[in-house]
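User: For a benchmark we're assembling, each entry needs the component sequences followed by a predicted structure for the full assembly. Here are entry 17's components. Please fill in the structure.
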Amino acid sequence: MSSLSRDDVAKLASLARIEMTEEELVSLASQFGSILDAVARVQELNLDGVKATSHPQPIENIFREDLVLPSLTPEQALSGAPAQEDQRFRVPQILGEAE
Amino acid sequence: MIKKTAAQMSASLTSGETTSVALTQSHLDRINEVDSKVKAFLHVDGENALAQAAKVDAERAAGKKLHPLAGVPLALKDVLAQEGVPTTAGSKILQGWKPPYDSTVVAKLKQAGVVILGKTNMDEFAMGSSTENSGYGPTFNPWDLTRTPGGSSGGSAAAVSAFEAPIAVGSDTGGSIRQPAALTGIVGVRPTYGAVSRYGLIAYSSSLDQAGPFGRTVLDTALLHEVIAGHDPKDATSINAEVPNVVSAARSADVKGKKIGVIKQLQGSGYQAGVLARFNDSLELLASLGAEIVEVDCPSFEFALAAYYLIAPSECSSNLARFDAMRYGLRTGDDNGASAETVMNATREAGFGREVKRRIILGTYALSSGYYDAYYGSAQKIRTLIIEDYKKAFTQADVLVSPTSPITAFKIGEKSEDPIAMYLADVATIPVNLAGICGMSLPAGLADEDGLPVGFQIMAPAMQDQRLYEVGGALEAALVSKWGGHLIDQVPALGGAK
Amino acid sequence: MALTYEDVISKYEPVLGLEVHVELNTESKMFCSCSTTFGAEPNTQTCPVCLALPGALPVVNATAIESTIKIGLALNCQIAPYSRFARKNYFYPDMPKNFQISQYDEPICFDGYVDVEIETEEGPKQFRIEIERVHMEEDTGKSLHVGGATGRIHGAEYSLLDYNRAGIPLVEIVTKIVPGTGKYAPEVAKAYVAELRDILRGLKVSDVKMEQGSLRCDANVSLRLIGSDVLGTRSETKNVNSLRSVERAIRGEMIRHAELLNDGKKVKQETRHFQEDTGLTRSGRSKEQAEDYRYFPEPDLVPVAPDATWIETLRAALPERPSLRRKRLKAEWSVPDKEMAAMINADVLDIVEATVLLGAEPTKARTWWLGEISRIANEKETAIADLSITPADVAEIVALVAAGELTDKLARQVVEGVIAGEGKPSEVVTKRGIKVVNDDGALMAAIEKVCAEQAETADKVRNGHVPAAGALIGAVMKETKGQADAARVRELLLGHLGQATS
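Assistant: Structure for entry 17:
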């Protein structure tokens, strides 16, 4: 029987940048037991030596030529922006440093 | 006019019996009349549709050589980007977003002169099997308005079965075209992975997603398939090969001497009696047409559902990270000097629905360090086993078959509180997605116990999509002659169709 | 307690690890066809792909793959017959997809090395820096922090994002840990980055401009007690944007670590930011929990499986290793150390070599490029490479001088003419009517004319006052429009006036 605690779910929600309500955390945690049991069936078989498939089609080496094509106009690029200023996307203050 | 097939509409347009403007207008009228009950559309784009129709009419009048579907109306699943037209993927987080670009599918539709009537409802980001997970409310099944049309392409399926559009585009990640086609009594095809470009298809699970056609007949579906398929350099996973000749396959509709493999694992317990009965009727019909029915064993299919519900959530947890309130879409909580991080957290909380959050959390867990091998890694290996099962089965049969859905259309709300029960709706369709092959669902009749449509699923190897149409076309012809008409003709009138 | 560098190295041994990010100089971005031109107006080089609009998909730039393989080969790496892209998942506003397409456990190049040489008290000493991996990834956008006092991230009220840089191809070159450099750690690190820069420049795969950020170095430093084999905790210093800073940052971190350790404190494993002004590092905002990047194979891209023929073609076309080439040229041309350094600094090695290969004598070729041509470039505030004079032009001029058809002075006029766009040297000579007058008869006529005009001065010379000849020589030169060989004029003049020329 697999399970995730409310705190486990809270940690995952924070990794996934979702500010969940207490009610959501508790209810998700309670559902996760049966969901994890269902998906944990992938561990029932002996999979030693089985190759992992991450892509259904056996294709390789798909490249594009290094050519410049027209970009969007800045108006198009910014058309969906919740806020903008000086042809840039305006976003709330960033707390952490970049990677 | 709206009761005609797309092929018949095409003929009427070619002969001058009608115009695209008239045809488009009659569909807009039908939408106006019934969509308040069906709720198939999120956005009806009447003005642009009529303008496109007028353009095609003018081109036809000028003697320009046109595609057979030029001037024929279509419903587009809201998962595909269309320039300047609201595109939400059924999510509140994208409410009001208008893409500055066309998806390749839309570009191909425009090129062929197909008239796009509007965007159809769907489970949010294609996550669901009932269209109840839409951020904008559910779609209702035209066969019984208390039931779901299936999902996630429920809006497209309902639009076609309610005669709001003759054809529609959907997308199929775990069965999202075939299952709603089955539940609404129409034809739906999930093409081979890589056959239809994913450029502009809002991603749910990149290695499983594939757009595909809906129609009321096998031929209509083939006509649309041919328009949207083809290699696209903008999609690195697109297959660079000729599109299989699906239209002529649909017309040839021949199964004589073909081997049809019934998958042992996709029947029996969990399958509704009426579903199995109609499935078996269809097998008998195929045998009577000269096909050879064999049984094939695909033991790893038992684990397909588990593998799917790890792979798809894992990929989606990453694909949906871009919805962060910075560049487009919803932004909430941006006040009192809130930080970007706080705004992201608040927006994603407010903008995503429950099922989406559930899958993001599940995927985040499956990929996290310490769990990757046990979950995501194992699921990828199961995927290999499923591919091998199919390979072996296709040495024994030309196509494989099963019921599309273990059950007929279920009541709205019936499964929405039980994610596992909902996930089981995809048990027969998921293996196709995991293996990247192609599959079709076509109507096999009504279940005795509830009088609701049953879908018959046909599966073929990658890039052998024409086999679906050969076998599907033959079965459809036999069923139509048995019933004395198409199954869809039995759908309730709703608004009293003309 | 404040320590000197000598204190530190008497007790501790530094262990280095260097991660260098290189922006490739492809025309278009890594995964889309947007331009990579530096300095464009904000958000003019973006598209659905690099803005991560819903539905957009990446497609790999072939040249970026080729450049990365070249880099791997130049760094003596193995090239993976099969490698994949992976998603590195973390949220940050300057990264549109909130994952970076990178490579994880299947980098395209691995297991290489670079040898660097530095001057030590015991003479030149070579160090081998082992390369762990070379992999491909993409750059992020740029944020501008607005409000607050500093314009820095801390205290800013909001930020403005420009995604022109988002998706520019980056190659990350990661060393294995580098022990055994002792007190030379800072110099070795600097020499390594310099050598990398030269190798990349030689490959022509990047602009390698540290000041523009096209080459960026992160320096990992840890200390261990001399004689111990237990590695210390490392810090990772970012924003090291010049060769000098590499040296300063490592020296500074070594001292900072040693001070903590001597005081019985722990070094925190953290990211630090180098401050150009103070030469110190400051702590990044520490995260409550270690990031879990949830790497998984990028499902929108297919594997990269370069075939052996392609790799061998690229290997065969590799340029000579910069350090070896410098040694070879120095020996072949017998250049003194100082002059060699001057050529490297002025970045004229390639152009001088090209000139020599066209037949010019090395010293002459070097003198032209480093002297007159550099002077003109300085005057015009432009790069030598941007002047319209080629190695072939210079070789031709050197040949003309050697043949006695030009004097050095005339040759300078020709150089000016070529740079002014008047054509090839021979054309400039013709157009400007430049030629050496070496017809003694014509010179004698001019001498006789001048001596007649300035009879008084001529007499002084006749009477043995040789210095007075200068004025007459000048007049003869003027008479012959500067095209005479001054030495010959002097010889003939003095002979004419009965003076010995020895």
